[in-house]
Amino acid sequence: MFRKRELKTIVFLGVGGVGKTTYIYRLLGLARAPRVTRKPGVYELQYRGVELYIVDTPGQYAVEVARRYYEAIKTFGTKLDLIVYMYSAADPFTLYSLFDIEQWVSRYPPHNKILIGNKRDLAEELGYLVEGDDVAIALGAKRLYYTSALKDDPAELLQHLVQNL
Residue 22 belongs to what domain range? Predict the structure, then answer.
């Protein structure tokens, strides 16, 4: 008999330049440098018998990201297993733009959500870190992580996702 495969869908949301594509490329072991993402990318990753569909939602501005999220809903239905809100830990604008995106996300059934403050390495270099604790609570995120998609171990980056599914 055939076993039904387990499938989980993860959607990355955040304005342009926060490192969503870089994070995903590191998970997949891709060495190429990411460019501006123009259309939604769907990547497949196997993890302990579970098929992860990772959706990279493009858009430079919150309204563009929200529209692309709506397209993802039309493609995958409202059965999304995890929403990853991402912002740059070195840029407060990217954190607060998540509220505009959340207005669209909140129109659909509740999902598991996490918040990732990416570019921790850049924030440390600049001498300040944009903390996301209050925003994580307001968005209903289960967890908040500070990462460097460029420098952190890919296995650690993956754990941030799978432990919240």
Answer: 6-162
